[in-house]
Design brief:
With 232 residues, this protein is an alpha/beta fold. It has 2 domains: 12-79; 96-229, 3-Layer(aba) Sandwich (Rossmann fold). 35% of the residues lie in helices and 16% in strands. It is built from 8 helices and 9 strands. The strands form 2 sheets. It has a 5-stranded parallel sheet, sandwiched between helices. Strands 2-1-3-4 form a 4-stranded parallel sheet, covered by helices on one side. β8 (207-212), α8 (216-219) and β9 (227-229) form a beta-alpha-beta unit. α3 crosses α4 (124-139).
């Protein structure tokens, strides 16, 4: 094992996310090891940072939960969100336009002619993925009459499973079959599979579903395995 760099040359970095994806943390950790950086322990078990902590920088995810905290950090920052941010900060994001194109190509190559996007308005990247998905389909000659939107209900309904099933199922009944549905993230894809199972809709025979993130524990453990775009 190579000796670590001198403490004076080492950097201490804070990771300030309000969500967890082991692949992202693994990538950050690998880089830190290679460059002899230290990851601060704060925010892994709680959202606490000691006053006057002498960090060298932060990798952040700007949003509703941590927005004020992130803006108040007096250190170099790199952000991984797509949310509008009042500070000029370097950003590293996934290619949401490419994700939408891949989804459109996936369904077109399988012969689908009716398409829907399962939209969750509170998740910013979903809007970007929907625009790219529909734009790619239009570019392939698909008309507006074949492009549909399924809306995730408001939070008060989402917290009530029977009401959520009813709200989404009502939208599904109004759409043609066979239908190709692209969901902005795996959790929505699995939710849609569960709703289809509860309401007697066959997946993928009547409705084919594609997610994003390719999270194995979600995709492989769904009532019907979920196909997903790996974007990490």
């Amino acid at each position: 094992m190579k000796p670590r760099a001198a403490a004076a040359e080492s950097k201490t970095i804070l990771v300030a996310f309000d969500w967890f994806d082991h692949r992202v943390y693994r990538g950050i950790g690998k880089y830190c090891i290679q460059h002899h950086w230290h990851l601060a322990p704060y925010f892994f078990s709680d959202r606490h940072l000691p006053e006057s902590w002498p960090g060298d920088g932060a990798i952040t995810c700007f949003g509703d939960v941590l927005g004020d905290f992130i803006l108040g950090l007096d250190m170099p920052k790199v952000d991984v969100s797509v949310r509008p941010m009042p500070q000029d900060v370097p950003r590293v994001t996934v290619d949401n336009e490419a994700i939408g194109r891949v989804a459109a190509d996936h369904f077109l190559r399988r012969g689908f002619r009716q398409f829907a996007f399962f939209s969750w308005r509170k998740v910013v990247v979903n809007q970007l993925r929907k625009e790219s998905f529909f734009g790619s389909l239009r570019g392939a000659g698909i008309g507006a009459e074949a492009l549909h939107v399924i809306e995730q209900p408001d939070d008060d309904i989402v917290r009530d499973w029977p009401r959520q099933i009813e709200a989404v199922h009502r939208q599904l009944l109004a759409l043609p079959r066979p239908l190709a549905v692209f969901t902005g993230q795996d959790s929505l894809g699995v939710t849609l599979i569960e709703i289809c199972k509860q309401t007697g809709i066959s997946v993928p025979e009547e409705i084919a579903i594609l997610g994003v993130d390719n999270l194995g524990f979600q995709c492989e453990c769904a009532p019907v395995p979920l196909s997903s775009i790996d974007c990490r």
